[in-house]
Amino acid sequence: MSTPDPTPVTIGPPPRMVEVTIDGEVRQVAEGSTLLDAARAMGTDIPTLCYGDTLTPKNACRVCMVEVEGARVLAPACSRKVEPGMVVHTDSSRVLLARRMVLEFLASSVDMSAATPEVGKWMVEYGAEPIRHGADAATVAQPAKVDNGLYVRDYSKCILCYKCVDACGEQWQQTFAIAVAGRGFDSRISTEWDTPLPDSACVYCGNCVEVCPTGALSFAEEFRLKEAGEWDPSRQTQTDTICPYCGVGCTLRLHVQDNRIVRVTSPHEQFVTRGNLCIKGRFGFSHVQP
């Protein structure tokens, strides 16, 4: 007997299509799509850092800016919706200069060495040279916060993209254990009253770690291996399985190196979890370690 597909099906009228021109190519795009959606659908790569496919865009990093003809300023592709007749340039000289400046400013003040692998490629592609701002450029260098055995906070790598705040807050976990503290140049991600994580409202779901694009948040085992120079993604395998702790049916993606689980994620396209897990699914694997 076949098992019915549990994926929910939404029945309704097809989306209205609008015509937009991106880099000289005319495309029909579903109304309500963002410029980022439209560009990626046609194979055009637009860099993103603060964008998360399971979160509402915050427009914080500004690295995805594109030029819309007739507009006074550049537009963030991650949140700007398509409009009929819109003409967009993703690689104009104005766009390229803006991306180079953003990457330079970020890398001159924040340690980007553990950021998403594409960052190094973007640095070369856009000719970003953070050293132009001088070796004494203001940085947020500080020791990593290792105050629990599950994950590490290294805010010297934080670009204030706010993805962790959204994942912990109203968009997913509803725990509100972390938020933006301070104002202006003193803005930073913090627990309430900057208390150690074990004394905060954190429930250790690790969903903030899941969405962090720069390595400011990392699994304890991952942090330990990187500090020892032993972290090697080329030696890692990934295996999907179902979490055994309850009946919800969350999909776990086990990242294994040298026969040890070094981190656990969940596929963002999985309709049960959308990348989110609880403390048991994310960290409850020590009993199977060699």
Characterization of this structure:
There is one protein chain. This protein is α+β, with helices and mostly antiparallel strands and 290 residues long. It folds into 2 domains: 14-136, Roll (Ubiquitin-like (UB roll)), CATH 3.10.20; 151-288, ADC-like domains (N-terminal domain of TfIIb). The chain has helices at 35-41, 93-109, 118-125, 163-168, 207-211, 220-227, 279-283, and strands spanning 17-22, 25-30, 65-68, 75-76, 87-89, 151-153, 178-181, 188-191, 217-219, 236-242, 251-257, 260-265. The radius of gyration is 21 Å and the shape is globular. The longest helix is centred in the middle third of the chain and has 17 residues, at 93-109. The strands form 4 sheets. The protein has a 5-stranded mixed beta sheet with strand order 2-1-5-3-4, sandwiched between helices. It has a 3-stranded antiparallel beta sheet with strand order 10-11-12. The chain contains 7 helices and 12 strands. A hairpin with a 2-residue loop joins strand 11 (251-257) and strand 12. The model has no long low-confidence stretch (mean pLDDT 90).
